[in-house]
Amino acid sequence: MTVELVVRNCTIGTHVDRTPDAAIAVEDGTIVAVGTPDRMPAADRTVDAEGNLLVPGVIDCHIHNREPGLEYKEDWESATRAAAAGGVTTVVGMPNTEPIIDRPAHLERKFETGEAGAHVDFQSYAVVTSENIDLIPAIAEAGPLGFKIFLGSTVGDVPAPNDGEILEAMESIAETGKRLGFHEENGEIIDHVERRFREASKNRPIDHARSRPVIAEREAIERMCTFAEETGASVHMFHVSSGSGAEAVARAKARGVDVTAETTPHYLWFTEDVLREKGNVARIQPPIRDAAERDRLWRAFEDGAIDCVATDHAPHTDEEKGVDDPFGNTWESISGFVGLETEVPAMLTFVEQGRLSIEDWIYHHSTRPAQVWDMYPQKGSLRVGTDADFTIVDPDASWTLDDRDALHSKQTVTPFVGESFVGRATATVVRGEIVYEDGDVVGKSGYGTRVDVDSADESS
User: Fold this and answer.
1) Which candidate, 184, 108, 99, 97, places its Cα nearest to that of 144?
2) Structural domain span for residue 241
3) Does residue 239 belong to any structural domain of this protein?
4) I need a labelling partner for 239 at 20 to 30 A (CA). Which of 23, 308, 324, 343 fits?
């Protein structure tokens, strides 16, 4: 028997353990063997991993790829080119585009453009507003990964349903078996505080952060978990930024609510001091918090309140971010920055620092996202018969992001410029195809395909 690809001379890591001096074989895009090199079949191509670590492909279940309608910021091709370069094998696009992804035809358009342009595999969420609650069953039939509600004002100004409508939507979504995620900030609180700040000419970057206080996040989490408890819906909290918010998730989990949560590398890495050092470059919603909240977030992460790591990758132009005057009026800047190429290095740096183990990183960045969003074990497992998605990393590589122009997104504003890391992706493999190696994206645009979660094996 001859297979298409064998990767040798690697340590294979999963969320359970690590196996040194191992190898893995691929045929027709699936894993056909995992074990010692002497047990591998002959291959058309053999890759020497040079002793590096091979893990289940990293999944980023929160990116803004901006297509359709905002392609000047980013599109499927450029976002997934960055994903490939960052070691990410599957991404999930957010629905605040133009038009918003609020009906089957819009979702189908997003999938079609993804099939035409993506370098890695992908999916998308659909948004719920006051105007489309009756369309939820039809949208679910069109195959999104899940649904999202924006509770507070954010980029795109997608209006939040009222609480009665949210309860109705939860009941309908529960019947579909899909999960409903939230941008969980209480809109009335943040709109009120921002108005007061503007009236008082509080215009610094740090003022934007203070205008979206932790209580707005915590209250939204607690309210949505109460609604989920009432309706039986499965819910998810995107981009949890604070320890207070993560602790609210933990309390809901403890009483049996089906709630999952994610945080991002930037909330674990930075404190609000970055806004004083780098200005509106680091402006994001929800904002980066103070040191006390970051420390509480780390403790909640370590205690199991957080399921997933994602980026909230959110590209904007230099003009929109105000890069030429980063400490200018914060209300004239837009929130968000890119993260697909720094998430793996950031998490590996935390491993090097002893903040988490390799197994913990794999669990939060691959296995658990796949489980939460019904992609497991096809993604995130390294089981024989599943998709041959691998991220190969050098966990000892020391480097600094000196030049953002080296990034692969259309827009490259990020507060991680100047930050030093230990660890980086050396190769990215999607369904058996090497899409990134030796510093170059080598995969073809359009190779990536939509992950069909509705026909996936749901066993775990």
Assistant:
1) 108
2) 57-372
3) yes
4) 324
